[in-house]
Design goal:
By secondary structure, the chain is an all-alpha fold. The protein has a single domain, classed as Farnesyl Diphosphate Synthase (Orthogonal Bundle), CATH 1.10.600.10. The chain is built from 14 helices and 2 strands; from the N terminus they run αααββααααααααααα. Strands 1-2 form a two-stranded antiparallel ribbon. A hairpin with a 2-residue loop joins strand 1 and strand 2. Helix 1 crosses helix 5, helix 2 runs antiparallel to helix 3 and helix 7 runs antiparallel to helix 8. The protein is globular. The two termini are 28 Å apart. It catalyses: isopentenyl diphosphate + (2E)-geranyl diphosphate = (2E,6E)-farnesyl diphosphate + diphosphate. This is Farnesyl diphosphate synthase. Pfam families: polyprenyl_synt. Belongs to the FPP/GGPP synthase family.
Length: 271
């Protein structure tokens, strides 16, 4: 963050969470999509960085006492535990806004395409996407949700940015409309698979590996797939979405194994 002309504390807080580790699944999906179309992945680096910044900002804000009130993230103290609540809020704000600056300044991409990527990202991250999903998640606490209500939350809170990852790669690769539609379906299903596996790991995962206490969702009285469907029912639903993601990917006929492997990784990960 050295190039930013901003107060040191804000830069340090932004840097702390951005470099705290994680799976980087969104940037990986974007670059893997470019690779699937035999494009140079380097053309997607700015978009991939912007995506990770938005995801990181959302985690900083999610962890705040007014939201999930978490002390650990990726096995490390959460941002507000290190820098204080005010600095954490500003760090999240900084990452969100800086992401669009980075995307707007991408070199070698036509202005029309940059505008398309910016518009889609704003929608995926905003009140019709991630923000809306988080709001619904908070409103659903201490309530018994249906599978459909839970799916709405995760389709928006988690799935919209994952879908954007694949769509951005396809747009940068000049994919056709039919391919973009099928890749969006692929991303929709792996987004739900991602969240279902998260819920499963909250029941039977390892605190050391997932970087937060096991059972935290249960303790906060959140509806989860295992709570609604039973653990075995959640695993069956996971297999369903994994299979659907692969069907959409196969139909897109882009002939790349990496996106198939990512789907399997999402469904089998242990952290």
């Amino acid at each position: 963050m050295q190039r930013l002309d901003a107060p040191v504390t804000v830069k340090e807080a932004m840097d702390y969470s951005l470099k705290a580790g994680g799976k980087r699944i969104r940037p990986i999906l974007l670059l893997a999509t470019l690779q699937a179309f035999r494009k140079d992945p380097r053309i997607g680096l700015d978009a991939a960085a912007a995506l990770e910044m938005i995801h990181t900002y959302s985690l900083i804000h999610d962890d705040l006492p007014s939201m999930d009130d978490d002390d650990l993230r990726r096995g490390k103290p959460t941002n507000h535990k290190v820098f204080g609540e005010a600095a954490a809020i500003l760090a999240g704000d900084g990452l969100l806004t800086y992401s669009f600056e980075v995307l707007a300044g991408t070199k070698g991409i036509p202005a029309e395409k940059r505008l398309q990527l910016i518009s889609l990202l704003a929608k995926a991250a905003g009140p019709e996407g991630m923000v809306g999903g988080q709001a619904a998640d908070m409103e659903g606490e201490n309530k018994s949700l249906s599978v459909e209500e839970l799916e709405y939350i995760h389709r928006n809170k988690t799935g919209r940015l994952l879908a954007y990852s694949v769509m951005a790669g396809a747009i940068l690769a000049d994919a056709g409309e039919q391919q973009i539609r099928l890749l969006k379906d692929y991303a929709f299903h792996i987004g739900l698979a991602f969240q279902i596996q998260d819920d499963i790991l909250d029941v039977e995962g390892s605190e050391e590996k997932i970087g937060k206490p096991v059972g935290s969702d249960i303790n906060k009285f959140k509806s989860t797939y295992p709570a609604i469907l039973t653990l075995e029912g959640a695993k069956e639903k996971l297999r369903f979405h994994l299979e659907k993601s692969k069907e959409a990917l196969a139909e897109s006929d882009i002939g790349n194994g990496l996106l198939f492997q990512i789907a399997d990784l999402i469904a089998s990960r242990d952290h």
